[in-house]
Design a protein that fits this description.
This protein is mainly alpha-helical. It contains 8 helices and no strands.
């Protein structure tokens, strides 16, 4: 997971110099805003839609969409979903006894059915299956 965020930050910085002309722009201020948003886990906020996030970065929804597609090959909502699920996995590993609906809320997915569905789409298993594997791994480590 650490590698994912490192690659993300590197890509943001690599794009900083791109398009300083009148067309597509992604200047240092925007990159700094995006980098801060990722570091502060802004993607876990439930009350922000894509327009709110784009405005926070100083760009339009279309520019944010273009940037995500050109940089990551997928849309903003897909990126946000992946980030949320990576965070959920981390939280489950650190707090395996925390209720899964609470973890879903902590990562910005308040509906437990939606959380389960999105988790499965990204991780290929349900949050409960992930937690069971985490618990199994921890119990094996204790026996060793």
């Amino acid at each position: 997971m650490k590698g994912f965020f490192s690659r993300l930050a590197i890509r943001l910085r690599q794009r900083a110099a791109f398009g300083k002309g009148a067309g597509r722009r992604l200047n240092e201020d925007i990159v700094a805003s995006m980098d801060k948003w990722f570091r502060e886990k802004g993607y876990c906020q439930t009350d922000q839609n894509m327009g709110d996030v784009a405005e926070q970065f100083g760009m339009s929804k279309d520019e944010l969409s273009w940037y995500c597609h050109s940089t990551y090959g997928c849309g903003f909502l897909s990126i946000r979903k992946e980030l949320r699920i990576y965070e959920a996995k981390r939280l489950i590993e650190e707090n395996p006894n925390l209720p899964l609906n609470t973890i879903g809320e902590m990562v910005g997915i308040c509906d437990k059915t939606n959380f389960r569905r999105q988790f499965f789409e990204v991780a290929g298993e349900t949050p409960q299956q992930w937690r069971d594997r985490v618990r199994q791994g921890k119990s094996k480590k204790k026996r060793s």
